């Protein structure tokens, strides 16, 4: 593996793939497609759909591999993530070794490789280190704001991007009126005092199964909790994101 290209593919709509991403796919000798188990088969299917639509280079090979699972029972969250990333890097190396003559390898990365995705950190674990290239993709933040037709920030105002864990532990971030929350499997917004907060929520953004909800947190929060639980039962997995804004400030 001389070169490794991480290609952002957006949040579930094959049209999210950029022209640069399509060129990178056809310029690769080998494309690695991770499988995350039967309950997340939709994610591998989307990658297959993208490849079926844009891959025209007959010399490009596609290899699928099983992605290691994180040990969620480890009480040390960061140590567990480090071990998991080591295991994923090993899985990448083994999958790439199945085509030893492939010098230019590519991975299709959900969303954008730069935002709350570990592909860049995992790539840094590869030995020997390949030459790395990143093709940016549409982020879940951009997809959420587009789906709701809202601006990300107020005029000249800052915003914070954080995680559900940080929201639970630290509350609404100080110093701003807009907060985007990712990686929240515990609907942490339900622990905030709802007064003066509006929420815009989306799940399966860009996919046919996309779900949207918004409104004052006091009213919309319970609806989101119920919709999220039902969708997770129905699909076996869920990826969602939301934006919180203090409504004491002008939204438009």
TrEMBL record:
Domain Tetrapyrrole methylase: where? 4-220
Which example biological process does GO assign this protein?
cobalamin biosynthetic process
A single Pfam family it belongs to is TP_methylase
The keyword Nucleus appears for this protein:
no
Coiled-coil segments, which residues? none
- Record has Ion transport as a keyword: no
Its domain of life reads Bacteria
UniProt keywords (A-Z) are: Cobalamin biosynthesis, Methyltransferase, S-adenosyl-L-methionine, Transferase
- What pathway does the UniProt record associate with this protein? Cofactor biosynthesis; adenosylcobalamin biosynthesis
Q: Which GO terms describe its molecular function?
A: precorrin-6A synthase (deacetylating) activity
Enzyme Commission numbers on file = 2.1.1.152
Q: Which reaction does it catalyse?
A: precorrin-5 + S-adenosyl-L-methionine + H2O = precorrin-6A + acetate + S-adenosyl-L-homocysteine + 2 H(+)
PANTHER family the UniProt entry points to: COBALT-PRECORRIN-2 C(20)-METHYLTRANSFERASE, PRECORRIN-6A SYNTHASE [DEACETYLATING]
Q: What's the name of the protein?
A: Precorrin-6A synthase [deacetylating]
């Amino acid at each position: 593996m001389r070169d490794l290209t991480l290609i952002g593919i957006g949040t579930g709509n094959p049209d999210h793939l950029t022209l640069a991403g399509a060129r990178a796919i056809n310029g690769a000798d080998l494309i690695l497609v991770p499988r995350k188990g039967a309950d997340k088969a939709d994610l591998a299917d989307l990658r297959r759909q993208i490849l079926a639509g844009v891959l025209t280079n007959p010399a490009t090979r596609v290899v699928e591999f099983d992605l290691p699972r994180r040990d969620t029972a480890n009480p040390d969250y960061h140590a567990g993530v480090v071990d998991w990333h080591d295991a994923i890097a090993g899985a990448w190396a083994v999958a790439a070794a199945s085509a030893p003559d492939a010098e230019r390898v590519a991975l299709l990365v959900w969303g954008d490789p730069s935002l709350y995705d570990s592909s860049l950190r995992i790539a840094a674990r590869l030995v020997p280190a390949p030459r790395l290239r990143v093709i940016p993709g549409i982020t879940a933040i951009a997809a959420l704001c587009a789906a709701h037709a809202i601006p990300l920030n107020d005029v000249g105002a800052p915003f914070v991007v954080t995680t559900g864990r940080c929201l639970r532990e630290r509350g609404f971030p100080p110093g701003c009126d807009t907060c985007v929350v990712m990686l929240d499997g515990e609907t942490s917004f339900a622990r905030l005092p709802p007064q003066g907060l509006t929420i815009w929520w989306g799940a399966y953004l860009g996919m046919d199964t996309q779900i949207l909800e918004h409104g004052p947190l006091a009213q919309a929060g319970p609806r989101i909790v119920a919709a999220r639980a039902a969708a997770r039962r129905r699909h076996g997995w869920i990826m969602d994101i939301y934006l919180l804004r203090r409504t004491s400030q002008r939204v438009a």
